[in-house]
Amino acid sequence: MNKSALIFMLLVAMVLVVPGNASAVPPVLGTPTIDSPQLLDWGQDVNNGEPDLTEQTANRLVDLHGSFSDCDIALSTAGNYHMALRDLWYDIYLPQYASELGLKNWFFTTSPPVALKQLKNGAVVFGNMSLRCMPQLAVGPQKVINDLKAAGLTEGQQIPIFRNRGNVLLVKKGNPKHILTIWDLGRPNIVISTPNQNYEKNTFDNYSGSIYNIAMNDAAHAPDGWDAGRLFNSIFGPDKIKENGTNHPKWVAGEKIHHREVPWSIAYGRADVAVIFYHLALDAVRRFPDTFEIVSLGGTIDNPQPLPGNQVGAHFAVRINGTWSDKQVQARERLIDAFNSAEFTSILEKHGLQR
After folding, report:
1. What's the pLDDT tens digit per position in 188-217?
2. pTM for this model (two decimals)
3. What secondary structure does DSSP assign to 143-177, as a single string?
4. For position 58, what pLDDT does the model report?
5. Distance (Å, whole) CA 157 – CA 145
6. DSSP structure class, residue 344
7. Does the domain formed by 167-295 have CATH 1.10.260.40?
8. Are 344 and 315 in contact (CB under 8 A)?
9. What DSSP character marks residue 268?
10. Which CATH number is associated with domain 66-163+313-350?
């Protein structure tokens, strides 16, 4: 092709690409209001760098697609102590053992306990991400451990990890509804938020049982005509709140992960109060000090002493049997060492938990 023909073709291309009547676009002078749901920004455990596609609409991974099944260590755990586990993992476990053992691929989940279903189905799924590494270790309350044992999925003895310090009431900053005792939950203008009673049955039973049993042990302070049964049924019965001729729920619940959902319900006015583990309430107040406050159910905010009937729970670890490599076995045993360490005891105490 000669030079003249080449120049002619370039000119034709420019005419086709750039219309003759194109004008300079004016500068953008305004700024938009970001159209996004109101959500609590829990932040990230560590800064993993860019590009970061995290978007705070929910725990959804719709724009990350994949599946992986080769992990050095995977932990399936109840997630209500996520703040303590974060500190253990990034400040103790990885710094001490990742280099020594060559740990590169790992994950842990901090949802309600899913180990049994995860092991049976061979995966845990977040949005379009399927994690197919089977956990070498599971952590949860006694019933979760018992179910894993009954299914023949465990080996060795269970290991005590921590105990909680009972339950408290979580309310909005300033306590606008003046909720002071368990009996206030029965007031007709109070909406209570709980875990999903089907998806998080163990925790729901703890919280609802604490409401009933605290009231049973505090009959002397019951309003006239009230007892524990009436209080319980006023919350968990079929009746709705009637206000201005409209029925409103007395009781709302999240779908799957109450340690994220319950604070959201209170923060954005869907609920007025929740009975919740002390350490979860403490974490919510520390993260969002202008949004939440704690009402004690025994003792003080700094030194909770659970009232009679206020249930205290324990969590345990158990080894999952499987065809593990030497590295995977060593990674699991070092994680157990970290759970048993004095450093983790201090971490637990910092976050409102105890041995």
Report:
1. 999 999 999 998 999 999 999 999 999 999
2. 0.86
3. HHHHHHHHTT-EEEEEEEEEE---EEEEEETT-TT
4. 44
5. 10
6. H
7. no
8. no
9. T
10. 3.40.190.10
